Amino acid sequence: MYAIHQVESSGSTKDNIVGDKGKAIGPLQIHYSCWFDATEYDKSIGGEYKDCFKLSYSKKIFLAYMQRYGKGKTIEQQARIWNGGPKGYKKSSTIKYWGKTKGYLEWKR
What we know:
Blueprint: H1 2-9, E1 18-19, E2 24-25, E3 30-31, H2 32-41, H3 55-70, H4 75-84, H5 95-108
Antiparallel strand pairs: 1-2, 2-3
Helix pairs in contact: 1-5, 2-3, 3-4, 4-5
């Protein structure tokens, strides 16, 4: 999650981050469909999409999304799922994203 946070918003904790031409919000850059999937999977999260502006809430969404789609997958596959959706680990378009994420993982060691 640390590396994803770095890639998506340079580790920012600001509560007004909007990206991907207005389609993603918050420090983990969550799209509505990701939020919907995560809250459908783990109904205990509750809240509204706009809550994704908060880092603490965004982390809950990330964890639920990974439980739903990333369980049993490698760290690379999970990063690519975060970037490209449930089957993102199969998309060549997410390889570059993995490279950025991997760089932060190696830097943190």
